[in-house]
Amino acid sequence: MPVGEKIRVENGVLKVPDHPIIPFIEGDGTGPDIWAAASRVLEAAVDKAYKGQKSIVWKEVLAGEKAFQQTGEWLPQETIDTIREYIIAIKGPLTTPIGGGIRSLNVALRQELDLYTCLRPVRYFEGVPSPVKRPEDTDMVIFRENTEDIYAGIEYPRGSEESDKLLKFLQEELGVKNIRFPGSSGIGIKPVSEEGSKRLVRAAINYALNEGRRNVTLVHKGNIMKYTEGAFKQWGYDLAESEFGDKVFTWDQYDRIKEEKGTAAADQAQKEAEEAGKLIIKDAIADIFLQQILTRPNEFDVVATLNLNGDYISDALAAQVGGIGIAPGANINYVTGHAIFEATHGTAPKYAGLDKVNPSSVILSGELMLRHLGWNEAADLIIMAIGKTIASKVVTYDFARLMEDAQEVKCSGFADALIANM
Ligand SMILES: NC(=O)C1=CN([C@@H]2O[C@H](COP(=O)(O)OP(=O)(O)OC[C@H]3O[C@@H](n4cnc5c(N)ncnc54)[C@H](OP(=O)(O)O)[C@@H]3O)[C@@H](O)[C@H]2O)C=CC1
Ligand SMILES: O=C(O)CCC(=O)C(=O)O
Ligand SMILES: [Mg+2]
């Protein structure tokens, strides 16, 4: 087996050796089952595509329960340092307790490495059971801001010294009168910055232009949270116009033309922009957006949104194309080149150790990783094998329970079928 070399970034460009060392985190709960299946599929695809000329040299790094058992720490500094050094990593899901205990290790990794984009493509594979009539109409790519918003973890329990201090400050210094039950309120803070918003929207627009997409929708709740979510929307429009000029047409421009020259002129300007192949930058308030992705999904293409909205939207859109068992993702910093690939789903603890769940989300996250490395031939093999395997109705429990005449296989069995179909 080759010794392996480090991936490097030179002048902002990823330099990938033929045998890159890639750190992986196995994950909690169903993580070990999924990783055993997914790593075999990724290795097989690379092997089939490059016949030994390229290979991945895995390097395990610890996080979560396995890390705690072996080192007494949930997220050892060595794990963060190793991923920083080796640039690209892949992980299984990690458990976060509810209402107390450790803060999310998944969020900590994103924040430590400043992986400001959570990229979650949502696409349909023929034959996957879906709750909607035309799942093939859903073809969206989510860009979720990954380092700010209420995920910053600035949150204090009721009655703590910190929340008492904050309440006192809000009431006495800022004249806040509408905290309904101050004596029993926990307090959370939601930071959203211009830099954070703009770098995320920049990534979404760059992606949309490179991939020939038609539109980017800025999703926000800016009517209620004016200076965080509303500001995100405005910073997004400002960035689009100032950095992408003639390549885009924004709804902000539309509104200005409408005010000056009327609706017909604004409609005409948008029509001309569309005909000229310009990228349309629009926005939607989060609640109506969640309705419209169901009622008219083909109107939405690339989605740029804040952290919490992006979390909800990821799972909702995944459901439309067959669920969380087939929902990949990547956490990326487009400036430093650092990236951690991971599924959208969590640890699904009730299935831990049963070799039962669908490994496709991690496999497709690996497929995204291979494409990110420029190993498109191996990535294509994975897409082809997933399409072929699902079309032959060989599926895990999550699809089998919704399909007729399906052959249900285990997590490992699905990996076997994919490898056989490559
Ligand atoms: N990035 C990460 O590491 C993430 C971690 N988490 C963490 O995971 C833990 C559990 O969270 P929970 O909210 O239950 O969400 P999960 O995504 O873990 O599971 C919810 C349900 O989704 C379905 N599901 C999940 N994974 C798969 C899969 N691979 N194949 C098929 N179906 C799947 C199962 O549905 P069914 O019951 O219908 O079979 C499962 O019960 C929490 O601690 C949470 O914080 C959550 C999200 C992301
Ligand atoms: O960190 C967690 O436990 C949850 C993360 C999550 O839901 C997500 O990344 O979509
Ligand atoms: Mg989530």
UniProtKB/TrEMBL annotation:
<dbReference type="GO" id="GO:0000287">
    <property type="term" value="F:magnesium ion binding"/>
</dbReference>
<dbReference type="InterPro" id="IPR019818">
    <property type="entry name" value="IsoCit/isopropylmalate_DH_CS"/>
</dbReference>
<comment type="similarity">
    <text>Belongs to the isocitrate and isopropylmalate dehydrogenases family.</text>
</comment>
<comment type="subunit">
    <text>Homodimer.</text>
</comment>
<feature type="binding site">
    <location>
        <position position="106"/>
    </location>
    <ligand>
        <name>D-threo-isocitrate</name>
    </ligand>
</feature>
<feature type="binding site">
    <location>
        <position position="401"/>
    </location>
    <ligand>
        <name>NADP(+)</name>
    </ligand>
</feature>
<feature type="modified residue" description="N6-succinyllysine">
    <location>
        <position position="91"/>
    </location>
</feature>
<keyword id="KW-0816">Tricarboxylic acid cycle</keyword>
<feature type="domain" description="Isopropylmalate dehydrogenase-like">
    <location>
        <begin position="21"/>
        <end position="418"/>
    </location>
</feature>
<feature type="modified residue" description="N6-succinyllysine">
    <location>
        <position position="233"/>
    </location>
</feature>
<keyword id="KW-0521">NADP</keyword>
<dbReference type="GO" id="GO:0004450">
    <property type="term" value="F:isocitrate dehydrogenase (NADP+) activity"/>
</dbReference>
<dbReference type="GO" id="GO:0006097">
    <property type="term" value="P:glyoxylate cycle"/>
</dbReference>
<feature type="binding site">
    <location>
        <position position="120"/>
    </location>
    <ligand>
        <name>D-threo-isocitrate</name>
    </ligand>
</feature>
<feature type="binding site">
    <location>
        <position position="397"/>
    </location>
    <ligand>
        <name>NADP(+)</name>
    </ligand>
</feature>
<keyword id="KW-0329">Glyoxylate bypass</keyword>
<feature type="binding site">
    <location>
        <begin position="345"/>
        <end position="351"/>
    </location>
    <ligand>
        <name>NADP(+)</name>
    </ligand>
</feature>
<feature type="binding site">
    <location>
        <position position="358"/>
    </location>
    <ligand>
        <name>NADP(+)</name>
    </ligand>
</feature>
<dbReference type="Pfam" id="PF00180">
    <property type="entry name" value="Iso_dh"/>
</dbReference>
<dbReference type="InterPro" id="IPR004439">
    <property type="entry name" value="Isocitrate_DH_NADP_dimer_prok"/>
</dbReference>
<feature type="binding site">
    <location>
        <position position="144"/>
    </location>
    <ligand>
        <name>D-threo-isocitrate</name>
    </ligand>
</feature>
<feature type="binding site">
    <location>
        <position position="104"/>
    </location>
    <ligand>
        <name>D-threo-isocitrate</name>
    </ligand>
</feature>
<feature type="binding site">
    <location>
        <position position="311"/>
    </location>
    <ligand>
        <name>Mg(2+)</name>
    </ligand>
</feature>
<keyword id="KW-0460">Magnesium</keyword>
<keyword id="KW-0560">Oxidoreductase</keyword>
<dbReference type="GO" id="GO:0051287">
    <property type="term" value="F:NAD binding"/>
</dbReference>
<feature type="site" description="Critical for catalysis">
    <location>
        <position position="221"/>
    </location>
</feature>
<feature type="modified residue" description="N6-acetyllysine">
    <location>
        <position position="133"/>
    </location>
</feature>
<protein>
    <recommendedName>
        <fullName>Isocitrate dehydrogenase [NADP]</fullName>
        <ecNumber>1.1.1.42</ecNumber>
    </recommendedName>
</protein>
<feature type="binding site">
    <location>
        <position position="110"/>
    </location>
    <ligand>
        <name>D-threo-isocitrate</name>
    </ligand>
</feature>
<dbReference type="InterPro" id="IPR024084">
    <property type="entry name" value="IsoPropMal-DH-like_dom"/>
</dbReference>
<comment type="function">
    <text>Catalyzes the oxidative decarboxylation of isocitrate to 2-oxoglutarate and carbon dioxide with the concomitant reduction of NADP(+).</text>
</comment>
<dbReference type="GO" id="GO:0006099">
    <property type="term" value="P:tricarboxylic acid cycle"/>
</dbReference>
<feature type="binding site">
    <location>
        <position position="95"/>
    </location>
    <ligand>
        <name>NADP(+)</name>
    </ligand>
</feature>
<feature type="site" description="Critical for catalysis">
    <location>
        <position position="151"/>
    </location>
</feature>
<keyword id="KW-0479">Metal-binding</keyword>
<keyword id="KW-0464">Manganese</keyword>
<feature type="modified residue" description="Phosphoserine">
    <location>
        <position position="104"/>
    </location>
</feature>
